[in-house]
Amino acid sequence: MRKELFIGIFAQTVYIILRRFFSIPDLFLGFLQGLAICFIIIGILPQEPYSKLKRWKRSMIKSV
Hints:
This protein is mostly helical. Helix content is 84%, strand content 0%. Helix 1 (3-21) packs antiparallel against helix 2 (26-43).
């Protein structure tokens, strides 16, 4: 399991727990769920698009 997928599932679990048992503002919960969904999508990408995304990310970091 890729670390991005693990982080996404964990963030989604935290979102569900916070939504069910605590009174947290919707803005924070929406941000958390959006982040979780992004990590899950990145984590389930096939190997080739995942590699391209990683290379693009590294090139963006080096250019800054």
